[in-house]
Amino acid sequence: MPKLEKGLIQVYTGNGKGKTSAAFGLALRAMGRGLKVYIIQFIKGGFDYGELYVADKLPNLTLKAFGRGKFVTEKPPRREDVDSANEALTLAEEKVKSGEYDVVILDEINVALSLKLIDIRRVMEMLKTKPNHVELVLTGRSAPDTLVRVADLVTEMKEIKHPYNEGFSARKGIEY
Amino acid sequence: MPKLEKGLIQVYTGNGKGKTSAAFGLALRAMGRGLKVYIIQFIKGGFDYGELYVADKLPNLTLKAFGRGKFVTEKPPRREDVDSANEALTLAEEKVKSGEYDVVILDEINVALSLKLIDIRRVMEMLKTKPNHVELVLTGRSAPDTLVRVADLVTEMKEIKHPYNEGFSARKGIEY
Q1: Which residues does residue B105 pair with via DSSP β-bridges, in sequence order?
Q2: Which residues form the domain of B66?
């Protein structure tokens, strides 16, 4: 039985820290209320993230990660990156459509879109036809304007100050 | 034994969604790495938040909430609001100083500061004297400039679009 009367489309974008963390924090809150959460990570598969070690201990949470564990930078992108992002999207379409999950998080989908690994028309169709009670959360920098237009709630994480700029390197447990 | 070589001071501020969620997501990641996390909520005590129901099931996480469960709006603030925010700060000082926790999250402390419920000089002293390995995360809108100046990492959550603006009301499991 759906628990939300009306699910929204949320977008977290921008160059600042906290987009994926905000989505995981939201998942935690939702689980606290007995909601079912499905997280699909686009292009992050294979990375070693701290949250993965807790995710499988949490009730009502399923997490699937796609990608080859490397940031996609080639232009045009590699065939395997396109394939795995599309696999992620197919799973997303299926899980959203099923209506079985109250919250579906599409982590880094904005990046997959901006790199044109996936077709924005497929994503727009998924948003347009989503069951009413399903909350959709899309994260990643460079969210396309088309997506921002149809979203109900959009937050930009804006970097004001970051030690990376001073040659700082990522730390286990904090940055990953 | 401290797990972080160098703990930073992080600030999440701005009028957008996701500040507390980002802090909780970060806590989740840290726990996934076996780090010990202490969360102190300023002015949020008594509120019924979804994350509270999961928090006590998580290993390595302690959460204490202060306040009377109402947003503080009176000017000058009520005595009891001043007292509970100061109680929260005293606990924060103690837990930071102990060096026992790898990550200490001071949720909504920025709001307590901007409402002048607590003295910024005490907070600055706590930041200046924190053990090197402790990561401090301060959240809440209206972070004072003095705080932003000493922080290592500052992210502004900027509201781009929000259904509240159209008379939308908060939903259990998503907004709280």
Answers
A1: B39, B137
A2: 9-158
Contact flag A174-B17 (C-beta cutoff 8 Å): no
Q: Min CA distance, A114 vs chain B (Å)?
A: 19
Confidence of residue B14 (pLDDT cuts 50, 70, 90): very high
**What is the full DSSP assignment across B39-91?**
EEESS-TT---HHHHHHTTSTTEEEEE-S-SS----SSPPHHHHHHHHHHHHH
Question: H or E stretch including A37?
Answer: strand A37-41
Q: Do B58 and A53 touch (CB under 8 A)?
A: no
| A105 domain-assigned | yes
Nearest to B18 among A12, A51, A152 (CB): A12
Nearest Cα neighbor of A72 from A38, A37, A117 is: A117
Question: How many residues can be counted in chain B?
Answer: 176
Q: What is the pLDDT of residues B131-156, one digit of tens each?
A: 999 999 999 999 999 999 999 999 99
Asked whether A18 and B155 are in contact (CB, 8 A), the reply is yes
What is the value of ipTM here, to two decimals? 0.91
Residues of A within 8 A of B32 (CB-CB) are 49-55, 173
CATH number of the CATH domain containing A48: 3.40.50.300
> For residues A85 and A43, is the Cβ–Cβ distance under 8 A?
yes
Q: Which residues pair with A166 in a beta bridge?
A: none
pTM over the 0.80 mark: yes
Q: Is residue B52 part of a domain?
A: yes
Is position B94 within any domain?
yes
Phi then psi for residue B43, to 5 deg, are 55, 5
How many domains does one find in chain A? 1
Give me the torsion for CA of B99, B149, B146, B22, rounded to 10°. -60
Facing residue for A25 by CB, picked from B3, B24, B102: B24
A28 belongs to a structural domain: yes
For B44-94, the pLDDT digits (tens) are: 766 778 888 888 788 899 999 998 766 667 778 889 999 999 999 999 999
Among A26, A52, A57, A101, which would you mutate to test the B interface (most chain B Cβ atoms within 10 Å of its Cβ)? A26
